[in-house]
Amino acid sequence: MSTQKKKIRSFASVIILMVAGGAIGYLGAQWGISAAKIMPGLHVAILLFALIPVYFVVVGFHEGGHVAAGIWMDFEFRMFVIGPFLWEKENGQIKFKWNTNVNVSGGMAICLPRDSENLSNRFSIYAVGGPIASLILSGFTFLLYAIKGAWAESNEWLTIIRELLFMTSFLSLFIFAVTALPFHTGGFYSDGARVIRFMRGGDVARFDLLLLTIITGSASGIRPRDLPIPEILEAKELAEKLQAPMGVYLHSYHYQVELDTSDIENAEVHLQNYVKLADDVPGGIRNAVWLDAAFFYAAMKQDLEKAEFYWKQFEPSALIPKAMVLATEAAFSWLKNDKSAFEEKYHDALRELPNMLDKGVAIALRDQLEELRNRAPQYLTTHADQPIGQAI
């Protein structure tokens, strides 16, 4: 598919989404205007105040559907985000944190397969879990709203609760429609689009399956040097043929493979291919590109100028593993011959390694840090007074 056709299809998907969302939004606005004309002012104020909490409930139920489907498919829970609230699995325990990353403030769930068996069907069920949960919530709350006999209309607070139920039902139906509609833009695919891609078969399904196999293998603890290179190469060929946005991540995995086999020159080639396509990576994850590059040029090439160039572009986010940030800081300290700072960051990074989503990369990173610790930097000490750059 040509780049021009790819852009046209992506643009068409956005237009369809906007039209569908606009139609549902229009109906909601019409209901809101009509209701506001006959509702007491207190009712309108309460509904407006409750809009954001209700939205979080609706989104949380949708993402919870993904989690439930993932657990059913023997996926491991890793992260759950609703607005400013974030739950993440660390060291075998689920911990609450405040979400400071606006890129995932709408809602997100991450569950990773424990193995690669029948991934196509399992991921289809995982993807459809969210829309189904939204549809169930919409139907259930509308049913409660519709049972007029159970509501004493003379009771003002029961009437407000009934109106809140209708709002919940409408918003959940909206989320269902938006996520079930098959569309994609950039590197993002809706839940409906993911299911259809698996059902379509051919090169599209083959590419998705290869990509999922690689991602799952690495996430489950296969270190980069043991990943199947023939499958990575096949996936890269298919990505180019299909002009697949997700193909950008294959450059990252190929870079990790070469780095883990100590082929530094080839690692740099694949890293730079990854860097060139950084604009195709969603904002919340793009910082991983700059972090990988900063670590590589500090630890492997001992090039302070290039390392700082990428480091200054990096911004922390909830999706960036803390271990990788600390490892990069350790690499800078090592390059500057600051032994005490290196030891501190080195041990901090080791403690955070178990929390990385990608267990395979974590194994390789541990060895890279150990190797770094055992060799002295050859960088010219005349540069030791230069600043390291952005601090975390």
Distance between the termini: 42 Å
Q: Major β-sheet, in short?
A: 4 strands, antiparallel
Q: Tell me the total number of β-strands.
A: 6
Mean pLDDT figure: 82
Strand order of the largest sheet: 3-2-1-4
Helical amount: 55-70%
Strand content: 5-15%
Q: Structural class, from helix and strand content? A: alpha+beta
User: Helix and strand string, N-terminal first?
Assistant: HHEEEEHHEEHHHHHHHHHH
DSSP summary: helix tally? 14
Plain-language structure description:
Helices cover 66% and strands 8% of the residues. By secondary structure, the protein is an alpha+beta fold. It has three domains: 3-77 and 108-189, no CATH class; 201-258 and 265-279; 282-392, no CATH class. Strands 3-2-1-4 form a four-stranded antiparallel beta sheet, covered by helices on one side.
Features:
392 residues, alpha+beta, 3 domains, two-stranded antiparallel sheet, 14 helices, 6 strands, 66% helix, disordered C terminus
What is the strand and helix layout of this fold?
Blueprint: H1 3-38, H2 41-72, E1 75-82, E2 85-90, E3 93-98, E4 108-113, H3 119-146, H4 156-180, E5 184-185, E6 188-189, H5 191-200, H6 202-219, H7 229-242, H8 248-260, H9 264-276, H10 283-300, H11 304-311, H12 322-335, H13 339-352, H14 359-374
Antiparallel strand pairs: 1-2, 1-4, 2-3, 5-6
Helix pairs in contact: 1-4, 2-3, 2-4, 3-4, 3-5, 5-6, 6-7, 7-8, 8-9, 9-10, 10-11, 10-12, 12-13, 12-14
